[in-house]
Amino acid sequence: MFKCFTFLIVLFGIFSLPPALSQEMVLVKKGSFVPLYGSADKQPVQVKSFYLDVYPVTNAQYLEFLKQNKAFTKSQIKTIFANKSYLAYWKSDLDYGDAQPNAPVTNVSWYAAKKYCERMGKRLATVDEWEYAAMSDAKTLDARAKKSYNQYILNWYESPRTYNNVVGSTFKNYWGVYDMHGLVWEWTADFNSTFLTGESRKDRGDDGNLFCGGASVNASDLMNYAAFMRYAFRGSMKAAYGGRNLGFRCARDYK
After folding, report:
1. What per-residue confidence (pLDDT) applies to 100?
2. 188 with 18: CB under 8 angstroms?
3. CB of 152 within 8 A of CB of 181?
4. Sign of the CA dihedral running 17, 77, 82, 154
5. At what angle do helices 59-68 and 110-119 cross, to 10 degrees?
6. Is beta strand 45-47 parallel, antiparallel or unpaired with respect to 246-247?
7. Other residues' Cβ atoms within 10 Å of the Cβ of residue 194
8. Secondary structure, 3-state, 171-204
9. Phi, psi of 253 (to 5 degrees)
């Protein structure tokens, strides 16, 4: 019996995470929605149930990750995985300087965000998962047609330095997730998939008009304009890039 008890302790230790790295998750139940971009036939996309972090990853959490993964510190990360913007506001490898510990970590490349999530036993959310979870306001599963919801997003786009705010500063949405809008932009697993065609995007069309002036942007259509800005930002990124207003959170399959 003692040996069995010891084995359980060891097993638990393998699969548990240090408190500083743990992140609360919520279940986003399966459903369907019509994405505003990335779907040629504008048919509903099916999203399977998945878990999503309640908050974006913070400076303090990323610091703990770096202590255990020195290859991803700013002085040691390979240039193929991150350009010069990587953790640009950090004073050193293990010092995030004047940034708040509970503010979202930013200036992290897609490669680094992906690795962080993998180390947590998770992954980055797909664009469809992210958009599905983010289309909610506090009470409505799909609030995209609400003027107040879209105006909130557009007001955030015009607000400076929201990356300095601590996680949880914005509203809790229908699923119990905070900060999908209002704090930082976020990486997704397939961040540039809107512009891919064929099998890599399940035969979805190429939104070639996304950057064409007036083609997809209509200031009178707040829903379309708010989404346009988000998809255009994703499409302009490369995996090694980082930005002061670009962070991430993790997801996990529902089994």
Report:
1. 97
2. no
3. yes
4. positive
5. 80
6. unpaired
7. 21
8. CECCCCCECCCCCCEECCCCCCHHHCCHHHHCCC
9. -65, 150
pLDDT in tens, 125-151: 999 999 999 999 999 999 999 999 999
- The pLDDT score that the predictor gives to residue 117 is 98
Residue whose pair of structure tokens reads 């290859």 in the numeric block: 71
Spatial distance between the Cα atoms of 105 and 79, rounded to a whole number of angstroms? 19
CA distances from 205 to 33, 103, 104 (A): 16, 37, 33
Contacts for 84 with CB less than 8 Å, ≥ 6 apart: none
* Position 131, amino acid: E
Question: Which of 81-95, 141-155, 211-225, 237-251 has the lowest average pLDDT?
Answer: 211-225
Check residue 28 and report its DSSP letter: E
- 227-to-35, 61, 175 alpha-carbon distances in Å: 9, 29, 20
Query: 148 — phi, psi (to 5°)?
Result: -65, -40
Three-class secondary structure of residue 53 per DSSP: strand
pLDDT value at position 42? 74
